[in-house]
Amino acid sequence: MHLVPSQDDVVTVFQETGALRQGHFEYPNGLHSNEYLQVALAMRYFQYAKTLSVGLSRLLRANPEIRAMIPELSIVAPATGGLPVAYGVSEALRAAQVYWAERENENEPLRFRQYLKQMPGEKVLLVDDILRSGRRLTELKTLVESNGAEVVGLAVVIYQPNPKTPSFDPLPFYYLAKLDTHYAIDASSCDLCKRGVPLEQVWI
Known about the structure:
Shape: globular
CATH class: Alpha Beta
Order of helices and strands: HEEHHHEHEEHEEEHE
Number of helices: 7
CATH architecture: 3-Layer(aba) Sandwich
CATH topology: Rossmann fold
Strand order of the largest sheet: 4-3-5-6-7
Helix content: 25-40%
Mean pLDDT: 94
Largest sheet: 5 strands, parallel
Low-confidence stretches: none
Number of strands: 9
């Protein structure tokens, strides 16, 4: 692979590790899709985790403004999916620190652990494994900014937008590969449902 893996390289990694599946899937938000990606299935292998994290870090270093911030840069991720990527990117960049926000259960908002919050003016790069619905990163951005920190960019391994995915413009946004997945808003508009393809519900 090249220093920054190509789109084809990344997709091959996900296919070989079983992280990218083809079929008929229903997401928690009701959308139906022909693909499902679980990045954690690839990140469990050291060689792939390193390749993806280092590749993403090289995209970030190419931005001179972010490169200049690295000695003071904080990498912040939503738990738990973003943690392997955040630590890999932080190690490759040699960023100042890495930490995360979490929630007790799905009905509670993201929060930082006691005594852990951003300093006013702190430069923060948001990192996650995937940007699909954008819900977690939107919530994390709001939380970070509510503490007076400045979000300077977003970075994910995979960009798999659906019709409701928000834009984070004008923030710099980095990803290694984009999946142009086909979505249907519900069963009545889903070709796979009409063809009788067995449906599998996925958690996230």
